[in-house]
Amino acid sequence: MTHWIIAPIILPALLAPFIVLAARYHIGIQRVFSVVGVLALVAISASLASQVSDGSVLLYQLGDWAAPFGIVVVGDRLSTMMVLLTCVLALFVLLYAIGSGWDNRGRHFHALFQFQLMGILGAFLTGDLFNLFVFFEVLLIASYGLMIHAGGNARLKAGVQYVLFNLIGSTLFLFALGSIYAETGTLNMADLAERVQLIGPEETVGIRVAAVLLLLVFAIKAALVPLHFWLPSSYAEAPAPVAALFAIMTKVGAYSIIRVYTMIFPPDLEVTSGLHDLWLLPAALVSLAIGMIGVLAAKKLDRLVAFSIIGSMGMVLTSIALFTPEGIAAALYYIVHSTLAGATLFLISDLVRTGRDNLDLTPQPPVKGTAITAGLFFAGAIAMAGLPPLSGFLGKLLVLDASYGTDLMVWIWFVVLVSSLISILGFARAGSVIFWKAHSVEGPEDTEHLTTPTTMSYCAVGGLLALLAAHTVFAGQVHGYTTTMAGQLFAPDTYVATVTQTPGKLSKPTKEDH
Amino acid sequence: MSLFFIVALPFLGALLPGLMNGAGRAACAGVTFTVSLAAFLGLMTNLPSVLAGEVVMARVDWMPVLGLNFTLMLDGLGFFFAMLILGIGLLIIAYARHYLARGDNMGEFFTYLLLFQGAMVGIVLSDNILLLLVFWELTSLSSFLLIGYWKHLPEGRQGARMALTVTGMGGLAMIGGMLILGQIVGSYDLSVILQNRELIQADPMYVPALILILLGCFTKSAQFPFHFWLPHAMAAPTPVSAYLHSATMVKAGIFLMARMWPVLSGTPEWFVIVTSAGLITMVLGALIAIFKHDLKALLAFSTVSHLGLITMLLGTGTAFGAMAAVFHILNHATFKAALFMSAGIVDHETHTRDIRRLGGLRTLMPITFGIVTIAALSMAGIPFLNGFLSKEMMLEETTHTTLFGIWWLVPALATFGSLLSAAYCFRLIGHTFLGPVRDNYPSKPHDPGFGLWGPPAFLVVLVVVIGVAPFLAEPFVKLVTASLLGGEAEVPKAYFKIWHGLVPALFMSVAAVVGGLLLMGVFKPLLRVWESTPRPEAKVIFEGLIEAAAALARRFIHTLHNGAFTRYAMIGSVAIIALGLHAWSTGTVGAPTRDPQSASVVAIAGWAMLVAATGGLVVMHRNRLLSLILIGIVGLMVSIGFVFLSAPDLAMTQFTVEVVTIILLLLALNFLPNRTPIESTVLRRVRDAGVAVAGGLATFALAYHYLLRDAVSTPISEFHLANSYKGGGGTNVVNVILVDFRGFDTYGEIIVLGIAALLIYALTETLLSGPVRARLLNRLPDQPRAGDMHPMMMVVLTRVIMPVVLMVGFYIFLRGHNEPGGGFIAGLIVSIAVVMQYMASGFAWTSSRLRYPYHGVIGAGVLIAGFTGIGSWFVGKPFLTSDFTYVRIPPFEKFELATAALFDLGVFLAVVGAVMLSLESFSRLAHRAQDKDSEHPMDIDPSRDDPPEDQPKPVTEGV
Question: Which intervals hold domain NADH-Ubiquinone oxidoreductase (complex I) chain 5 N-terminal (chain B) (predicted)?
Answer without folding.
Answer: 62-110
